[in-house]
Amino acid sequence: MDDLELLRDLGRELGEEPPPELARQRTRLLDAARGRRRSRLPGGRWTLLGVVAAVTAAAVLVPASMLHGRGARPPAAGTPGAAAKAVNVLVVGSDARSGGPARSDTIVLVHLPADRASAEAVSIPRDSLVDVPACRSAKGAATRAYRGTVNTAYTVGGVPCLLKAVEKATLVPVDAAVEMDFGGFKAIVDALGGVQVTLPKAIVDPRGRRLLPPGRQVVDGEGALVYVRARHGLGDGSDLDRIKRQQQFMAAVVGRAKSGVLADPVRLARFTAAVARSVRTYPRMGVKELEALAWSLRKTGPGAVRFATVPVRPAPEDPNRVVIDRARADRVFTPFRR
Amino acid sequence: MVSAMTAPPTVPDCDADLIERSHADPEAFAALFDRYSAMLYRYVSRRLGPEAAEDVVGETFLVAFSKRHRYDAAYTDARPWLFGIATRLVARHHRSEAARYRALRRSPVDGPVEGPAERVAAGVTAWASRPALAAALAGLPRRDLDVLLLVAWGDLAYEEVARALGIPVGTVRSRLNRARRKVRAALGDTNPMDEEE
């Protein structure tokens, strides 16, 4: 191999196929061609934590498969999942890693229909402008209503405030909320003893460092985070492909839970404890209630989770922000309204 | 949109015709995007990674659009022009580009994993040479690097590189030779880190 050929090889390894998001740059060009002000729509796609939160939603589904194998215990009454009733769950992915105050990076509404045969997950761009209602801060002080991006509601009054803001903006009644951060996600995967994934090629960070080698492998929590965060370079790079990857990962999580953890009482206890420790629920649910919710989800296959992003349009008051497009959002949220 | 309903299917317009047409009908310029954005994206993502690449490709077409009146219609193929604009935009990111190559230089040589034997053999050469190649790229002066990568990663011919960078073909050749000499030296050398000047 001569030097140019080696270099071409390296190029092929480093380069990426154009992602579907490149279409936004075409829009940008057309806007310029039409003499419009440049508008770059923020949000509108799954952020990396969006993927994590989606997997988290799956983690809520995981105990279902475990309980399924463990003999049928009737679920406790009076918990969100117990009755055969449709439930809307707000999944909040927060990022508390940077040392500063935790930010809500991902906001996903999950709808579980009464028959639990499927689930819908709709992500809400964190920079959507909404009317944040009056809330209570963490210290209990009353806060004033204002117009701002939806994620600021979390900063102002935590998950309860975010929940109110989301309900108001989407007109979807929310029954419960689940909050989790990167650490929780990692802890859950680690408690499972890792999850098996197959990579068509290595995952490399923007600086070219190799984070995960290609091939079939069992990844720990840290590796799983790398896997679900990777947006490019796996599969054909399309949105559909990414969704497929998320679902495969969820299936792997479920499979792992069924085969490994279930067979080992010590690890089962460790796993349940990890889930209970890693997610905060509103209203508070103990291990028992989580199990009850999980029990009601036993029929939900990991492939039956559909993903969508709430339709948005540029905000009238600020073209750099988005607002939820009510008319189109109504269609997405139809199943969420009972 | 009615204006999008174009003439009956004939021979597709050459780039120069498209650009000509975009003077009166600016939206026609989007056809250039459809032709070359993927190609440009591959080239830029090799140099800067996917995040920056999306933006640089977008900028490239905005810059090209604003300069379309100065395009020389004698050149039917707009590729060199677009690659030239993209390369100048890549230069703005030279710090992160260099950091990318330096990081590759450090990446551990633990070899590729299992696969068909011959692919592994080929993979080993390519994989083993990676730190040396990256070290060479990190050490090249900008003007030589641009020529080398337009040839190797942009698939441009010498004349096209000359047009892209606005330099004579002879200069392209001499820069390419100099760059390749350094790359070969790095590949042959057991300790390429010492090769930097």
UniProtKB/TrEMBL annotation, chain A:
Domain Cell envelope-related transcriptional attenuator: 103-258
Organism placement in taxonomy: Bacteria, Bacillati, Actinomycetota, Actinomycetes, Streptosporangiales
Name of this protein: LCP family protein
Family: Belongs to the LytR/CpsA/Psr (LCP) family.
Family matches, as PANTHER family: POLYISOPRENYL-TEICHOIC ACID--PEPTIDOGLYCAN TEICHOIC ACID TRANSFERASE TAGU
InterPro entries, sorted: LytR/CpsA/Psr_CW_biosynth (IPR050922), LytR_CpsA_psr (IPR004474)
Transmembrane segments: 46-67
Presence of the UniProt keyword Calcium in the record: no
Keywords: Membrane, Transmembrane, Transmembrane helix
Record bears the keyword Transmembrane helix: yes
NCBIfam families referenced in this protein's UniProt entry, alphabetically: lytR_cpsA_psr
Pfam families: LytR_cpsA_psr
Record organism: Actinomadura violacea
